[in-house]
Amino acid sequence: MGFKSPWSPEGVWHGVSTLLVEKFSGDEVTVRTTDETVVVSFDGRSHELDRDAAASLRRALDGALAERRAFVHTVGTHRSDGSYVVARRGADSTGHRKVFDRFDELRQLYESLPERFTADDVEQSGLTGSRCHLVVRHLAEHPGFGCALVARQPLTGAKDHQR
């Protein structure tokens, strides 16, 4: 595997989930630490990195694993911990977002809804207030769901299996 780290000309790895490295290298990964360094071994080679550089690489990878996608009214974010956040675009308070433990939880909610659904239908899943409307809008905007808004009063989504 030919990854070259910007922190070392030798191509050092750390902060990378060993499972991620194993997946792409096909080799077992081992990690050994000392007070000052981290050594990651795979593909018959060992790579050493000081702790500050390892922490910096980990932050960069965590950021790369989180994916944020903005739509017209909503934003969906896949967090590095596996959770999925639906938020109102441009809002920064927690009252304008819903955190799902994982994206599949949102998919299961969508699948449980009737062919035509409103915020009241979403509310039955345990969501309350403006978050219900937020989720209806997000389902309509996200291309991963075969859904479209068909009415604004009341806000109504309809599943369209053509997408």
| Number of alpha- plus pi-helical segments | 5
**What distance separates the N and C termini?**
38 Å
Mean pLDDT rating: 80
Order of helices and strands: HEEEHEEEEHEHHEE
Please state roughly what percent of the residues sit in beta strands, choosing from under 5%, 5-15%, 15-25%, 25-35%, 35-45% or over 45%: 25-35%
Helix content: 25-40%
Q: Could you name the ranges where pLDDT drops below 50 across 5 or more consecutive residues? A: 1-25
Radius of gyration: 21 Å
Fold and architecture overview:
By secondary structure, the protein is an alpha+beta fold. The chain has five helices and ten strands. Strands 4-5-6-7 form a four-stranded antiparallel beta sheet. The longest helix is centred in the middle third of the chain and has 15 residues, at 51-65.
